[in-house]
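Box 4.2: Ligand-aware structure prediction
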Amino acid sequence: MVDSALFLVARSLPVRHGFTLRSGGVSEGKRASLDLGPAGDAGPDVRENRARLASAAGLPPARLVLAEQVHGTRVVHGRPGELPEADALWTDSTDSWIGIRTADCVPLLLSSVDGSRVAAVHSGWRGTLGRIAEMAVATLGQEAGAAPATLRAAIGPCIGACCYEVSEDLAERFAHAFGENVVRRDRRPRPHLDLRLAVRRTLAEAGLAEAHIEDVPGCNACEPERFFSHRRDQGGTGRHLAFIAPGALS
Ligand SMILES: [Zn+2]
């Protein structure tokens, strides 16, 4: 797959997928323009945005499965017509696709090497500390009958260590859980957190090969032209979608 006007792709995932950008939609104001949230009860603008994304990605608009995200660590089998409370979905159903919404949190996509089973994960600071990425790896490995070392992962745009200022208490918890490198103390006055690196660490500890973890770069807060950022915009902003569909690319 190649980047589209509406989304970025990872070079190493063997299936249809993407991390959406903020342009190319019809929403206005702080949500301009490709707002893809909420999960349920989307208004006409978001429905049109989803239709545009489906068309650009070559996926059926009515078969997109989303979740009611709650900053937890549950991994659920996504089925069309259902809206589970979960922060990670997986599927092996080739007539559907799954997605999770973010605006600063880390979006993570996973695939078995043959593309038959895929997962989409929302990992904010709570989910990252709870190691939701590890839960998703375990579920996907089990369902695919595959060793974690064979899985492919892509970590999408999120708030970067450049912009993610946190409390000393949270910085300590992250340093304890993932090592000092995930905390940056060169930016004042408060520590900054590298959530992307914490998720990468979790994946490696869960058994993924480092070479199979791809970064799709971008900081939501630094780049207002390309990304929504809950923190930068102080709420009321749009949502990105990280989406993935099982089935090898033709
Ligand atoms: Zn930044």
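In the box above, the bound molecule is zinc ion. Residues 160, 162-163, 219, 221-222 surround zinc ion (CB under 6 Å).
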